[in-house]
Amino acid sequence: MDQKLMYSRTEAARMLGVSLRLIDRMIADGALAVKHIGRRVLIPLASLDRFIHAADPAPPKPLSTASAGQQNPKSLEVPR
User: Fold this and answer.
1) Structural domain contains residue 1
2) Based on the structure, what is the number of domains in the chain?
3) What is the pLDDT of residues 10-33, one digit of tens each?
4) Residue 72: DSSP 8-state
């Protein structure tokens, strides 16, 4: 068995290409499940797989060429 079943926060951050701080936020938000073994916080491979394969949010819609870089001044008015 070549692949580990659990990864440290640092290893998980490297695998996902994100910062350690973001990993901590993802854990706090429940986006990544963890296992505590003694004082160590380990992230199961299954949790990383679930996160990686989760449905991505819809990509942002591209701006039309007619309105790219231009804003309608009326759209910025505050209703009274």
Assistant:
1) no
2) 1
3) 999 999 999 999 999 999 999 999
4) -
